[in-house]
Amino acid sequence: MMNHTTILRFTRFAAAFLPAALLASAAAAHPGHETHAGATFLGGLAHPVTGLDHLLAMVAVGVWAYALGGRALWVVPSIFVMAMAVAGAAGLAGWQFALAESGIALSVLVLGVLIAATVRVRWEIGAAMVGLFAVFHGYAHGVEMPASGSPIAYVTGFLMATALLHAAGVGLGVLAGRLAYTPAVRVAGGAMAVAGAWMLGGGYI
């Protein structure tokens, strides 16, 4: 279990990071997520899988939810999807959300560390953490929606893709557990953390 000191540090970090992220300045759309399907169901479905940042984070949420077990298995992914839907709507509405790209990269880094270190927390803490990260991902999905098409179809597409990626992560966790590949999962988490650090430092895949 994560001790109270670690939880307190995370809470303080979130409290310091969010005000900066909410500054009213334009957030440039991050590259690597371009699709040609437009604001359609297929366009929304493709968006989370056309950038490695979204793909890694969403699969990681499923893997970590499985590792936490119990109620977290369904609550943690559900909170991510719900928070992302709200943030996506904010992006579609034209809200300005500075540092969204940094938040996305940070989510990849932190989720990788959580998996690599096999961190266990209460489901409430896990849900709050992924809910925070989902805000950044959801905003990016919303603000990058093509100008023409159906917002409802697009949002439905990226929410479904997210749920499927979570399910894939849970499936990977189940498979690793049954095949005793837990060390491999930890190594993968470490590699993901390195990728997140690289993204956070200004790199992009």
The DSSP helix count reads 8
Q: How big a fraction of the residues is strand?
A: under 5%
Terminal CA distance? 33 Å
Mean pLDDT, as a whole number? 82
Radius of gyration in whole Å, from Cα?
A: 16 Å
In N-to-C order, the SSE pattern is: HHHHHHHH
Structural class: mainly alpha
* Biggest sheet features: none
Shape: globular
**What is the number of beta strands?**
0
Low-confidence stretches: 6-32
Helix content: over 70%
The total domain count is 1
Walk me through what this model shows.
- The model is unreliable at about 5-30 (pLDDT under 50).
- It is built from 8 helices and no strands.
- It has helices at about 5-20, 40-45, 50-70, 70-90, 100-115, 125-145, 150-180, 180-200.
- The chain has one domain (about 40-200).
- With about 200 residues, the protein is mainly α.
Defining traits:
mainly alpha; 205 residues; 72% helix; 8 helices; globular
A few lines on this structure:
With 205 residues, the chain is mainly alpha-helical. The protein has helices at 4-21, 41-46, 52-68, 72-92, 100-116, 123-143, 151-178, 182-200.
